[in-house]
């Protein structure tokens, strides 16, 4: 568990245009198989209607099955989206905040041509009660458009820490306009403090005993600030690293786990060799932060360092999606050989 440098080889096959990495193995699954793209709470909102009407629902927690249940009954007097046809096609959507990515969204069926839809559906979340009590429930109503141009009709946000769990009855609640907390705070996942360096092949001179025959990328993960707190005791976090497009077990590197700390200090260095300078245009360093639990690890956020071109060796890939900050950080490393480049980058959904 000590802070030692990890080193693996990164060797590219120019014909297959995919790298193979050797010398370090792991039993963990590939990041790409478990991390998905999560849209905003308000993604796809193309409408300009004012929120109105009410929604009837009840909340319950099933202790035996460790399941949070949202009983969505019906809505009344919703706004009309298509005034010419006098219609709305509403459905109800829920998130658990602040980390909508961890638990995902749930939604009811769509009821067509009505402003008084009846659902009688149960939306379920498998979650521990102690974790649930530090969440907020965001329940929103939407008009479903065949072309995906959905319109926001109203919402309600409930702090589950103060909820009366003895109240299992259906109750009516007025729908409200968008909440600023959900708009502005839902995607804040913390920031990563790190440094990176590229050592070109043979650049240290013949007299240097550690002069690499091939290029090396050094990644120094220093610390992370303001992680999402998924439990009252904090989070047990660690960082995974891959060099994409290789997501094999041999590519996988990780830090030790820092327990019960939303501001963990890792101070861990990883070295990938086998890099040629031209490979830097097509590779991407993916660093992801996870909360460690016995049965499963929960994704907290991550960054991708690359040029963000959408292409890797001429092939379109969805992971070459670096933000402007991440691209600038990678470009500075490419132009400053043998120098540590320091950065503070926000974690995001991947």
Automatic annotation (TrEMBL):
Record key words, sorted: Cell membrane, Exocytosis, Membrane, Repeat
Residues in C2 domain copies: 51-173, 200-320
Biological processes per GO annotation: exocytosis
Keyword Cytoplasm appears in the UniProt entry: no
PROSITE patterns: C2 (PS50004)
GO molecular function: neurexin family protein binding
GO terms under cellular component: exocytic vesicle; plasma membrane
Superkingdom, natural source: Eukaryota
Pfam family, one: C2
Localisation per UniProt entry: Cell membrane
Major localization listed first in the record, in broad terms: membrane
PANTHER family found in the cross-reference section: BITESIZE, ISOFORM I, SYNAPTOTAGMIN LIKE 2
Protein name (Swiss-Prot/TrEMBL): Synaptotagmin-like protein 2
Organism in which the protein naturally occurs: Centropus unirufus
Lineage: Eukaryota, Metazoa, Chordata, Craniata, Vertebrata
Gene behind this protein: Sytl2_0
